[in-house]
């Protein structure tokens, strides 16, 4: 068991609602730590953008090395976007969690996304077997590691809330610690989901659509809030706007909005002992 995973599990206790932002490199991880956040999560899309490729084109070796680097760069617990793991089988899900724990991670999420356009989510029976195997691996390797189970229906065109809740309830029974259905944008749906399960619910903000405050989400029953790749997209968007100004207008007004050197470097100074 690690101190980071123990601290991360403690954050999910009743009465807490916390924001877990998603850095995409060591620099952004250290900035977020200095700003007082209590935990961080990786973003597969943000990692892909930083490597100059589209999401889904990053190898598992690159993903886990990135996770290892982020976890080592901060004193905060880090939860990883493990996508579907190293394979489709329950055995591969179990091995994925062992690898994640060995990499120094305090938590990680496994998706039920299959990667196949004709059937984008795994059959429920296989999806549940994968979470059960992942939970068994957690219990063997680090019982405090926080396993998040993701139901991907809403991300792939299936807006059936009842079906999504049934999946999450099954994942809860299989041993997941946190439940997550990205893509749900309606606050009443979020409230319904939180009331339908007993484990903590993660909600992502920053996707196109409605944006709710931490207070509103907490009142709806949400325990944990992440931002996915939205901070990375915001940062890259500012970069693109600056480049467009220079190439299109021949001006450099963007620099007036740039953070100062001393302010930026202050995030990277070692903490006082």
H/I helix tally? 11
- Overall radius of gyration: 19 Å
Tell me the number of strands.
8
Spatial order of strands in the largest sheet:
1-8-7-6-5-4-3-2
Q: What's this, in brief?
A:
By secondary structure, the chain is an alpha/beta fold.
Please describe what this structure looks like.
- This protein is α/β, with parallel strands linked by helices.
- The protein has 11 helices and 8 strands.
- It has helices spanning 3-11, 26-34, 44-50, 60-73, 90-102, 124-141, 161-174, 187-196, 214-219, 230-249, 261-266, and strands spanning 18-20, 40-41, 78-81, 107-111, 146-150, 178-180, 201-204, 224-226.
- It has an 8-stranded parallel beta sheet with strand order 1-8-7-6-5-4-3-2.
- Strand 7 (201-204), helix 9 (214-219) and strand 8 form a beta-alpha-beta unit.
- It is globular and about 60 Å long.
- The two termini are 26 Å apart.
- The model has no long low-confidence stretch (mean pLDDT 96).
């Amino acid at each position: 068991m690690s101190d980071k995973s123990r601290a991360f599990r403690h954050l999910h206790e009743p009465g807490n609602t916390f924001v877990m932002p998603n850095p995409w490199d060591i620099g952004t991880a250290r900035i977020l730590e200095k700003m007082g956040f209590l935990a961080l999560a990786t973003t597969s899309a943000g990692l892909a953008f930083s490597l100059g490729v589209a999401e889904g084109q990053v190898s598992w070796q690159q993903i886990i090395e990135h996770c290892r680097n982020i976890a080592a760069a901060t004193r905060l617990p880090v939860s990883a976007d493990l996508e579907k793991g190293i394979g489709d089988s329950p055995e591969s899900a179990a091995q994925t969690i062992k690898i994640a724990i060995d990499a120094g991670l305090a938590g990680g999420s496994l998706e039920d996304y299959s990667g196949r356009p004709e059937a984008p989510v795994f059959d429920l029976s296989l999806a549940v077997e994968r979470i059960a195997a992942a939970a068994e691996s957690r219990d063997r390797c680090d019982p405090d590691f926080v396993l998040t189970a993701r139901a991907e229906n809403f991300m792939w065109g299936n807006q059936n809330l009842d079906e999504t809740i049934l999946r999450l309830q099954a994942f809860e029974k299989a041993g997941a610690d946190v439940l997550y259905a990205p893509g749900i944008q309606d606050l009443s749906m979020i409230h319904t989901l939180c009331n339908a399960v007993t484990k903590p619910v993660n909600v992502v903000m920053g996707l196109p659509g409605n944006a709710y405050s931490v207070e509103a989400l907490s009142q709806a029953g949400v325990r944990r809030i992440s931002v996915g790749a939205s901070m990375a997209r915001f940062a890259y968007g500012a970069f693109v706007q600056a480049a467009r100004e220079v190439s299109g207008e021949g001006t450099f007004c963007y620099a007036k909005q740039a953070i100062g050197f001393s302010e930026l470097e202050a995030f990277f100074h070692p903490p006082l002992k």
